[in-house]
Design a protein that fits this description.
The chain is α+β, with helices and mostly antiparallel strands. Helix content is 42%, strand content 18%.
Length: 139
């Protein structure tokens, strides 16, 4: 295979009457520009494959990612973004590659177990906690 590539570069360089090194440097510069232009797409594609193959995320999962303000249900997974609908009905679009490079919390296990998460504080005065006294029975 490498022999064919090397031979085709030599043939093209001979036909255009240029050095093969000039042709290779042009191909290298062109590939660098293409990589810069499609960087996010390539990162998101690889991240999407990893998310799918490891079953880390599905549509309908409840995820929490405070770095981007996401705390709600996944409504759409595309090549470049994951859309999360928060509980106040706002929608956050997260680049797919950020889900692989940063941490997020998936509450799928708690939902499948039938649990419920309450996001309220409950303050208890520690001095008021005591054992219950036996109750007197009525006659």
């Amino acid at each position: 295979m490498m022999l064919y590539v090397f031979a085709s570069i030599i043939i093209v360089a001979t036909l255009i009457d240029r050095s093969p090194l000039l042709l290779l440097s042009g191909l290298g510069a062109m590939s660098a520009v293409i990589l810069l232009v499609y960087k996010d797409t390539l990162l998101s594609f690889v991240a999407g494959v990893q998310l799918t193959s490891n079953d880390m995320l599905r549509v309908g999962d409840w995820i929490e990612m405070p770095q981007v303000g996401a705390d709600g249900d996944v409504v759409d997974i595309t090549l470049n973004t994951v859309k999360v609908q928060n509980f106040d009905k706002t929608i956050v679009s997260i680049p797919t590659w950020r889900l692989m490079s940063e941490s997020f919390r998936n509450w799928r296990g708690m939902q499948q177990a039938g649990g419920r998460r309450i996001k309220r504080s409950l303050f208890i005065d520690a001095s008021s906690v005591r054992f219950l006294a036996p109750r007197n029975k009525p006659p």
